[in-house]
Amino acid sequence: MDVMNLFRNYEEAVAMILFGIGFSNLLMQKNLIKKIIGMNIMDTSVYLFLAVKGYIEGHKAPIVVDGVQSVEAYINPIPSGLVLTGIVVSVSVSALMLALTIRLYRRYHTLNLDEISTLLKKEEKS
Amino acid sequence: MSVFTDILLLFLVVCAVAASLSKNLLNSILIFMSYSLVMSIIWILLESPDLAITEAAVGAGITSLLFFVTLKKIHAIVESDRKEKKDE
Amino acid sequence: MSRKLSEEEYKKKLSYRMEQWFAGQRDPYLEHLRMKPQAERTLEPEKEEALRKEKKERLDKVYRISDNRPVKLFEKLYRIFCVAFCFFLVIMLLIAVSFLPSYGEDEKPVNNEVSRRYIEKGLQETGAVNIVTGMILDYRAFDTLGESHVLFAATCTVLILLRHDKKKGERDTEEETDRVYEPKNDVILQMVSKVLVPPIILFGIYVILCGHLGPGGGFSGGAVIGAGLILYLNAFGFAKTEKFFSEKTYKVLSVSALGCYCLAKSYSFYTGANHIESVIPLGTPGAILSSGLILVLNICVGIVVAGTMYTFYVMFRKGGY
Questions:
Q1: Is B47's CB within 8 Å of A95's CB?
Q2: Residue C282 and residue C291 in contact, taking contact as beta carbons nearer than 8 Å
Q3: Cβ-defined contact of B39 to A37 (cutoff 8 Å)
Q4: How many separate domains does chain A show?
C-alpha cells in the first residue's frame, strides 16, 4: 500500500468516501426519502470515479478544435459517454423510487420503515 | 486551480454528511441540490462540459423538483410549517 | 333349502337396513346418537369490551418498538455493525485506490487503443465535432437506444403507480386534482415565467441542435426543455397546459421518436453491425446540417427525454395530464 499515492489520487479517494457515506445512509436511515438521497449520493460518487479515471492532466475536453486530432490534445471520451447515459438513468430510477414512496405513504401514512413493517405484520395477524 | 478543486471536493463531502444528518427533510433535499450544483462545477474542472450541462439540468433541477413534489404529497412541508408556528 | 323370511325378520336384516340407509329414508343411528345443543356463550357487554381491549393492548405492546427490549438491543447492534461495515468498506476501497495509477496521468490502462481510435478517426467516420456525441450516437448508438427505452419504461411504471382514475359520477377533491397550492393569479410568478420560459425552451432547442458541434446533446437539451415546461405549468396551471400537452401528445411524440431512432439505426444491425456506407452524406464538419444521422437521433432523444421529465412531474403532482 502506497500512502503517498493515496494523496496523489485524492479525487478517487473522495469518491470512495462519498460512496461510503451514501452506503451508510442506505443502511442506517429509517426515513425512505433519506434512503433515496443516499442512493443518489452513491450514484454520483461512482460517476465521479469514472470521470476522474478518464481525466488527463493538461488535456482539453474532447471537442475537436482547429482540426487537431492527436491523443495528446484531448482527454479520454469513453468515461464521459458512460456517465452521460448513467446520469439520465439515475433520474428515472429515483423517480421510480419516489413514486413507490408516495404509494407507501398513501397506504400506511408514515415514511418510517420500521413502522411500515410493524403495520404490515399487524395487518397479517388480524 | 488545484486549491479550488480541493475546496469543492471538501464541500462535496460536507454536503453529503449534512444531507444525511439533517433532521428536516426539506433541508436535506436543499443540501442535496447544492451538492449536485457543486458536482456540475467539478465536471467542468474535469474537462467534460457535456456532463456539466446534464448534471445541472437533471441533477440539480429535475431530481430536486421531484423530491419537492413528493414532500408536498406526503404533507411533510405543511407539517414542518405548523411546527414552526407552534414553536413561536 | 331356502325359506321365506317373515317381514319382521327381513326388516331386521343388515342388508335391508343398509339399503334403506343408502336410499336416505331412515338413519339407523338416529335414535341412538344425538347431539346436545351447545350452551350459548353469554358475556356481559362490558366484560367483552374489556377482553377485546386487553387483546388489542397486548398486540400493541408486542408491536411497539420503543418498549420492546430485544428489538432495541438489535437496533443498537445493527447500528454498530453498520458503522463498522461502512468503515471497513471505505478502507478496503481506499487501499484499492492507492494501487491505482496516479490522478491525471497519461499512461493508464483506460487510455488504450479504443479511445485513440475515437479521437483520431472520429471526425472522419462520424462527422461530429464533439467526440462524445459521435461516440454515443454513432459507434455506440445501440446503447443509447436501450437507454431511451429505459426512460420510456420508467415513465410507464410511474404512470401505473401514480395514475389517479376518476370514477364516474365522483367529483374530484381538491387534493387529488392538486388545486390546493395552485396559484390562481400569482402575478410575480406569471410575469417572470412569461419572460423566462421562451428563452429556456429556446436554449434547450439550441443545445439539442448543436449537440454534434459542442457540448450538449439530446439528454441535456431535453432536460432543459422539460424544466421550461414545468415552470410554465407551475405559473399558469393545468388548464393551459392541457391544451397542448395531453396524454395523447406524449404517446404520439415518444413512440414516434423511439420508432424513428429504431428505424434509423436498425440498418447497421441488419447488416451484421457493419457500418455500411450511409446514403446521407456526412457534410462539412462544423456545419449545422452535418454528421449524417446524429442530428436526427439527437432530436429523437431530446423529445423522449423532455416528454419523460414533464410526465414525471405531472404524474407526481396530479396523477394525470
A1: no
A2: yes
A3: no
A4: 1
